[in-house]
Automatic annotation (TrEMBL):
<dbReference type="InterPro" id="IPR053136">
    <property type="entry name" value="UTP_pyrophosphatase-like"/>
</dbReference>
<dbReference type="InterPro" id="IPR002725">
    <property type="entry name" value="YgjP-like_metallopeptidase"/>
</dbReference>
<dbReference type="Pfam" id="PF01863">
    <property type="entry name" value="YgjP-like"/>
</dbReference>
<protein>
    <recommendedName>
        <fullName>YgjP-like metallopeptidase domain-containing protein</fullName>
    </recommendedName>
</protein>
<feature type="domain" description="YgjP-like metallopeptidase">
    <location>
        <begin position="40"/>
        <end position="239"/>
    </location>
</feature>
Length: 251
């Protein structure tokens, strides 16, 4: 094994620290990263946990001291997360930014489909046992996100004369999308809960990186040329983006 790998591999190291902050105890997840130069903290909004990244030579004593020193920050950020909305019967879900009520249809065949009632109410029907509702709704949203993002990404790739080689759908916490120089794009499935113009912008943003692999003025000119609602979408994400992380999770 390479010496560098030995610096950050700790097979018996705990994955979680229990840190007391005031009268509460918080579970802080530990991550060791070979390129980290210092201890850092971040909040994973959908998993609702604090994550402490350690440098290769870091130790548990210093990690605990760092977490305790930033205890007020951890408590404030976790306490400030929007109320969780689990996928369950009766939940209102903003599919493409249009409110849909999850309705359990135990006696019907199929998986998940959308309907509009005579009253005009939009519903998301979920067949099968109640224990499968959460997973089936999530799978449905991922499929819808993949379909929409594949369609618009390929549209923008054709406009720019570039090629998308692969599209991955994930639950990313720190970014809505990413791109590699080989043409592989990755997006958060939660974009299917945003207004369509926001999803559209994120696709244009990542495809534009296949022309300019940076965030230079030239890159933003490419994005603005193919996506006229760039500024509107960026403002929506700044104001409402964090709210998307509350769906499909439990407090």
């Amino acid at each position: 094994m390479a010496f560098r790998a030995l610096l950050y591999r700790r097979p018996t190291e705990p994955r979680t620290l229990a840190v007391k902050i005031g009268s509460a105890i918080y579970a802080v997840q530990l991550r060791r990263h070979r390129r980290a130069r210092r201890y850092t903290l971040r909040i994973h909004p959908s998993r609702r946990e604090a994550i402490l990244t350690m440098p290769p030579r870091g130790n548990l004593s210093d990690a605990r001291e760092f977490a305790e020193r930033h205890g007020a920050w951890i408590a404030a950020r976790l306490g400030g997360l929007p109320k969780a909305v689990p996928f369950a019967a009766g939940t209102l879900l903003p599919l493409r930014h249009v409110s849909h009520k999850i309705v359990h249809r135990a006696g019907e065949r199929g998986t998940v489909w959308a309907e509009t009632r005579d009253s005009g109410e939009k519903i998301l029907c979920v067949a099968g046992g109640v224990e499968h509702v959460e997973r089936r709704v999530l799978d449905f949203l991922k499929r819808e996100a993949r379909r929409e993002l594949t369609r618009v990404s390929n549209h923008y790739a054709e406009m720019l004369g570039v090629k998308v080689t692969r599209i991955s759908i994930r639950d990313q916490s720190s970014r809505w999308g990413s791109c590699t120089s080989a043409g592989a794009l990755s997006f958060s499935w939660r974009l299917i809960l945003a207004p369509p113009y926001v999803l559209d912008y994120l696709a244009a943003h990542e495809v534009a990186h296949l022309v300019e692999m940076n965030h230079s003025p030239r890159f933003w000119r490419v994005v603005g040329r193919i996506c006229p609602h760039t500024e509107r979408a960026k403002k929506w994400l700044d104001v409402h983006g964090n709210n998307l992380h509350r769906y499909g999770v439990r407090d």
